[in-house]
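Predict the 3D structure for this chain.
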Amino acid sequence: MKKLAIITGAILGLAVAGVSQTSIAGPKHKHQGEHRMHGEGHGGGEFRKRGMRRINMKRAMHHLSHLDLSEQQKIDIKAAIKDGMQAAQAKRDSIAPLKDQLRELAKAETVDASAIKTLSAQIADVKSDLMIMHIAKKREIGELLTEEQRQELAEMKAEHRKHRTFDGDDE
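Done. Predicted structure below.
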């Protein structure tokens, strides 16, 4: 009888834990059943959801397509984006070995704080370089636009931001 009570209690406890986890994460939570390995999950891999996003040719041209670009502007902008994508990919590729070294340090028996700081600083330097490249490329593309197109783009961005923000008001 005592064994039955223990087993029933354990099963009931597991069931409650499973239900509460599903209610918190939701039944279709995107990480459900996923086993993340090297390069997958948050902050890594090919398709990042947060943080610095890569310039995507299709997405960039979609946003600029509303500006009535000339054929020469389209050619110049696509060339600038392609050049930026290649340069950024080379920088991103240089981060992977640094992250691998950092993972190895994390697995070590002792914590080597100075090595971790050094690698972290190197990764941060590359990421800041990527950010600078991204901003410079946006500026370069902006200079290819006419003043009227820049103004229209600024208005479109403001309208987009207005719809993205949530201030808690339902009005």
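The chain has five helices and no strands.
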